[in-house]
Amino acid sequence: xxxxxxxxRGVTFKEGxxxxxxxxxxxxKWFRCETKSQARVLYGRLKAEQxxxxxxxxxxxxxxxxxxxxxxxxVDATRHGRIGDDRARVKKWIxxxxxxDARTITxxxxxxxxxxxxxxxxxxxxxxxxxxxxxxxxxRITELKVVRAKICQRVRLPRYDNEIVRxxxxxxxxTLLETLLxxxxxxxxxxxxxxxxxxxxxxxTWADVDWQTGILSVSRTKGGKSHRVPMNSVVQDLxxxxxxxxxxxTENRLFPFRAxxxxxxxxRAGKKLVLSHFGFMICGTPLxxxxxxxxxxxxxxxxxxxxxxxxx
Length: 312
Hints:
The protein has helices spanning 36-52, 64-78, 87-97, 107-119, 124-138, 145-154, 170-179, 185-194, 198-202, 233-245, 259-273, and strands at 3-4, 7-8, 11-14, 17-24, 27-33, 209-210, 215-218, 227-230. By secondary structure, it is mainly alpha-helical.
């Protein structure tokens, strides 16, 4: 055995214990022994196995089912029930990969599952959510970050022809108001004239209305930032009527509706209007986009010379 400075190389005495130090694939490994003789014998055997190519350290496995269960437990504890929406998706991936080592998952396996979901008539957003959940599961293990990136970069999501109109025409706006109950008309009119999202409207309070400057202050948006939206004459007249009628709820909100109830209301309205993918938010955009919102434009700049609308 090679000796350096009169000492056995790779054998050391540290804190009352004999240790064998060995480098494996560039990483330092330490093996504890009871005596110096045991350490010298172990060191010699390991070095001989390395020279003969017989020493292969046992690699740590990452069963997908264990990783997915850990992900479900961790997210359930931190997101206050948000994982409840993804339990079925986590279960689906567990059924696909079971105890397979997560490092051996191939893009072809993922693509096959996603195309099976498409064949089952799942919507594009649902399939994309399945894929997002899979990435989150694999990202739970630090050692898998590089592997996860390679898998996800090579996966091709199914393609859909889902191009639809993202705003209502003037005729559809009138039909929508006729379809809805009168108590929802104020909310819809404000949405059409401000371009605000459903959550932003339902969180508005009378303190957010600045009557002097004609401004609505939106304290929390989808992006987490606050912004100010000017009110046109239609919105100001409508809010003035609501104020005089005393329709403000005990919470001091302008519109005392719940988001879940509004979702059902607009789903029923969409069926009556024979519109697919219809809701308060159409494909994630407001009922009327910013370039069609009159309040985003000054009165003189609302139309071009030929009468067509133009953005501010």
